[in-house]
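Bench notes, afternoon.
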Amino acid sequence: MSKEPILRVAINAPLSRLFDYLPASSAPTPAPPPGCRVLVPFGRQRQIGMVLAHATQSELPLSKLRRVLSTLDDAAILREPDRWLIHFTSDYYHHPIGEVVAAALPALLRQGKPLNPVVQRVAITGEGAAQSLSALARKAPRQAELLEFLGGHANDGVRFDLLDDAMPGWRRVRKTMLDKSWLRLFESPSEPDFEPQIGDATDGPTLNVDQSKALDVVRGQPGFHVSLLDGVTGSGKTEVYLHLMKDVLDAGRQVLVLVPEIGLTPQFVSRLKERLGIEPALLHSSLPDSIRLSAWRSARNGSASLVLGTRSAVFAPLKNPGLIVVDEEHDSSFKQQEGLRYSARDLAVAKAKHLGVPIVLGSATPSIESLQHCTEGMYQHVSLPSRAGSAVPPLMRLVDLNQQPAYDGISLPLLKAIEENLRAGGQVLIFLNRRGFAPTLICSSCGHIAECRRCDARMTVHAGDPKLLCHHCGASRPIEQQCPECSGPFRPLGQGTERLEESLAHQFPDRRITRVDSDSTRLKDTMNKALALATQGDADILVGTQMLSKGHHFPKLTLVGVINADQGLFGTDFRSSERLAQSLIQVAGRSGREQRQGEVIIQTAFPKHPFWGELFRGGYERVARSALQERLAASWPPFSRLALIRAAAHKRSDTHRFLEAARGKAQAVGLSNVSILGPVSAPMERRAGRYHAQLLLQSTDRQALHRLLQALRPELETDKTARRVRWSVDVDPIELF
């Protein structure tokens, strides 16, 4: 047993364990407490780790334990609730805890930068200011020049780096002037903490009966509880959020708001500033590292009372937590699909429970899992069944493409509806969840298709910057003019948003058309500008992908046209119908949110498919109910639990060899109530030059599944076949294929 505490340190490495170290020295200085960063020797390198616990014993002899090189924090930067969430995430998703710590920290803290960055400054003292500059200039002109310069900044001094630019060589006289007590050196924060711009809050519209009832239900329960705010598009869910936030902010506590995508933040931020009079601290991947650290630090010290962010913001530390809101809770963007494969929505619920605060999940199309939690009594179901104000639901109709063929993607009935709505002063949204000009380049003579050389996928034609682009690996090459098989001419086949934009520009040359997809909004601020045009009604026709379908409010929008809705009807994933319904309901909800009733036209080649009958007769509720019945019969989630072990390698045989070994180790654990399916090749087997395969674990007993994974992961980390593959464990996967 060691007299010194043994530090259990998490290191950013793909190993499911903590590493034992001794404090930096045997001197009687306090050992760094849990939550502090330390610099440690790790193999032949130095790594920054996080102390997560102290111990009195180690599996290794004390003589073999290495010492920490230095402690980077004076006090814990991660408090107990933050460390608890890290441990929970690592345990639930069976992911190395050091990599979880890395995901939870801002980049600058991972790099060893201080929590509170400081800069060095120099200022003139009273004695220095009393010197006669004219007399000094004759004897020591450089000293006189420095005193004169600093005299103009007597209060705050000047940063070293700025002084280096303004007066090169000033450092040569610094020591002499310090010895004379003419200068003083000090440190100050390199950037100020987040300072919320607090202005005058404005009163919103009077709540209707449904909104008031919903607000009372959520307010009526103290402490932790989960409320699913299930409101049709335009029902005023945000108004309910705002009233709840105001309660919490008035009580001096903090609110954390999660949104699925960066594109949703501008409108949300504007609404929050207008109604609450507070500038939220933002946390998302498009911000510079220094700004993200400032927002993270402000959430931690409580100076930011309102924190708004995307998926990773769930790890933001809160000093005085009072409420968590997850908007568009059904959105798949809340699930991380690479590395640490966590669900921010589910972690937000776990975080709220540990903190003892309420959490509100909002959506017009709640996930099947959340609806089932309501049925089981785990969540309370709060409904907003009607649109707020005088707005009414849009009219929805199908266009049978077998009877009304589409030209350049647009059928005649849809074209006429566009003309009528524009003539009446309305705005039109044409929705196609496929960017680029055309999804296929095909030979007119022999039918040969241009394919990606690194993936089992077709190349997409892009016309703006003419090229063929693979949307899976990012590979690109010039557009081919002749077929390599028969020398016949190539032609683009199918529609993408670029082609729709071109077609509509030809049909409506005098109208302003704005395309919103990940290509057109790639540059900084282009997304905000495009949304501003759409919101103000300056764009007559909007063409876009799912980026336009959620959360946005376009007052003048009266018509939505859905192109190629059929791509979701025959999906191989058991969630296909749920996702198609969510996508259609969400984009349809952008229409008719003000005085005029909206219209939604959906083009389909399969108008008799049962899905359409359910959607049109009973809306999303009926589709969800039918999906629950199917999943119960087939024992799919939420009536069972899934985990996928994924593997990728340059050789197909390596992926299957590893997964066969994984299957053998899983069977050796001997849990009869866990089904092991596979291994099988992924539907797109070759992607980015690697072959992908997967092994599916399924059980109606969640604890049994986690016991198996807990035993299996350490075995896989040391398996020889794992050295040739990239592999991961995906708990509660949302993509099976």
